[in-house]
Amino acid sequence: MSGISENVASVLARVASAAAAAGRDPSEITVIAASKMNDAQRIREAFASGIKIFGENRVQEMLEKNRQDAYSGTKLHFIGRLQRNKVRQVVGVAELIHSADSLPLVAEIDRCAEKASLIQDILIEINIAGEASKGGFPPAETASVLNEISSFRNVRVKGLMAIPPICSDPADNVPFFEAMTQLFIDNSLKKYDNVSMDFLSMGMSGDFEAAIACGANMVRIGSAIFGPRNYNI
Ligand SMILES: *Cc1c(COP(=O)(O)O)cnc(C)c1O
After folding, report:
1. Ligand 1 mean position, distance from CA 193 (Å)
2. Cα(77)–Cα(184) distance, integer angstroms
3. Which atom of ligand 1 is nearest to the CA of 226?
4. The model's pTM
5. Whose CA is nearest to atom 12 of ligand 1?
6. Is the pLDDT of residue 233 over 60?
7. Is the dihedral of CA 184, 185, 187, 191 positive or negative?
8. DSSP characters for 77-104?
9. pLDDT score for 2
10. What is the mean pLDDT of residues 39-61?
């Protein structure tokens, strides 16, 4: 027994009650299963249990599992740090790239999408806690970044994403979640070409309920669905 189906049921129930507690319809919250280091069979199991979207972190791993048909019937997002030289392999494969964290990266996504004759949906990653170890734009640059990106014709910004610090108490991240929601709302009011502020992607296994309470409508959940990752294999 992997426990995946029980975990999925429990996560979906927790998402629904967090949404209800915030006065929101649970259907407004999109759950992404962060499936790094979990094989095709475990992804199929999560899909059979009710997960509709999977998020991958590493390009090679995603392509390998894609070849094994891990995601058939599901949607695939890219949520990990993306190097410019790997963009070509992700554009058009991942429906949404959560981790657009620099203008040169966005320019490369645009170039590859144009070559492939498609429009790539992206989220703008914000380094909300100003951590040196993490990618993302400084919060204060959000408006100017959106303005700049609005001139790219083959990318469409669908919202914002953040990875706040790892915390032992989810309450520690509430100020970051609240700051993200404020950025999301402020920038939703401005009108930019090729930008629609549909998704606010934040919240992971340890803090997704707090994120939803603060306004997240997309959560990325790994270990609460698949169990702890074994980094030693
Ligand atoms: C792994 C990962 C997650 C999920 O992490 P858990 O703590 O296992 O839920 C979410 N977002 C990103 C970008 C990740 O790499």
Report:
1. 30
2. 20
3. 8
4. 0.97
5. 79
6. no
7. positive
8. EE-S---GGGHHHHBTTBSEEEEE-SHH
9. 75
10. 98
Residues in the chain: 233
Tell me which residue has its CA closest to atom 11 in ligand 1: 220
- Ligand 1 mutation pick, 79, 97, 168, max ligand atoms within 8 A of CB: 79
Superfamily grouping for domain 4-226:
Alanine racemase (3.20.20.10)
Q: How far is the CA of 222 from the centre of ligand 1 (A)?
A: 5
Tell whether ligand 1 has an atom less than 6 A from the beta carbon of residue 205: yes
Return the best residue to mutate from 204, 212, 229 for the ligand 1 pocket (most ligand atoms within 8 A of CB). 204
Give the residue ranges of DSSP H helices in 97-218. 103-115, 142-149, 174-189, 208-214
C-alpha of 215 from chain center = 15
| pLDDT-based confidence at residue 1 (cuts at 50, 70, 90) | low
Mean pLDDT of the chain: 96
Q: What residue spans define the domains of the chain?
A: 4-226
The per-residue pLDDT for range 79-114, each reduced to its tens digit, is: 999 999 999 999 999 999 999 999 999 999 999 999
